[in-house]
Write a structure and sequence with these properties.
The protein is mainly α and 343 residues long. It has 2 domains: 129 residues, Response regulator (Rossmann fold), CATH 3.40.50.2300; 181 residues, Hypothetical protein af1432 (Orthogonal Bundle), CATH 1.10.3210.10. Helix content is 60%, strand content 5%. Strands 2-1-3-4-5 form a 5-stranded parallel beta sheet, sandwiched between helices. Helix 3 packs parallel to helix 4, helix 6 runs antiparallel to helix 7 and helix 6 packs across helix 12. The protein is elongated.
Length: 343
Amino acid sequence: MIVEDNRTNLTVLTAIVGRIPGCHVEGFDSPTKAVARAFEMTFDLILVDYVMPEMNGIELIQCLRRIQSYQLVPIVMVTADSVRQVRLDAISAGATDFLNKPIDPVELKARVQNLLALRQAQQQIEKRADWLAAEVEVATRHLAAREEEVIWRLARAIEYRDGGTGDHISRVATISRLVAEGLGLDREYNRTIYLASPLHDVGKIGVPDSILGKPGKLTDEEMSIMREHVNIGASILEGGSSELIRIAASIASTHHERWDGKGYPKGLSGNAIPLEGRITAVADVFDALCSERPYKPAWPLSEAYAEIVRSAGTHFDPACVAAFQLKWSEISDLMKTVINKAA
């Protein structure tokens, strides 16, 4: 693009540049028309005159640099003004180079060819960077998919050992995500807690079958052994290199803590309990209440819901309970689907 308000000069400049092999030139005698055209297509090099009636060359450069696609495009200011401040202002505005009037055709061709070659190299680097970014994204998705698969398979294995079918962990995952959404947390965190919460009971792998499957009430000694599953789970998952595993370790070790400090294993209270542990606690207890166990029948949805609400401020974080209530429509739909399948 060449912008020059003097039509004779514009004709000469476009003719000289147009003779460069492979170079397509568009000339404009109006800066405003040039800006309008710049929004339609991205030129690889722009020559602008300094003295023009609508706006001077510095103002035009500033206008072009505000367009996202022109932040790196070479812009040459053509001027007969040798005042140092004018050139400094042009550089500050984003000028890449200068050409002095009267124009030397040989110098003009050389500058244009060099700057176009620079622009071409720049575009090749950008394309390479875009390709590498795309490849990294694909590789990252593959790694994430493999990580997710391992987590779900491990969680289901633990659930089968605990006498379930794997449905409990998937419901806890979904309800945890819904509660996180109700709290207004960001999408990435919601995804992470959805994938991490299924491992909340991974420590049960270290609990004897006689205790896991006992149909009656556990003795104090048996309860003490059962409670060790949180410490076992934490030790299994500790030291993870990914954020997903770190969150899963936190959930495994804190999902039995209580807001009032009467939980286990550390008796943490309030905000000292990690948020992911507080969220999963609501989801885990609610689904456990709604599920049949060797030692109890399933609670009706309305009773389980009332118990969660009643326990806000004692067992559960009130904010998490409020988020649970906010998402109740979706949670109840999920649980009704389970009930209908069972029927």
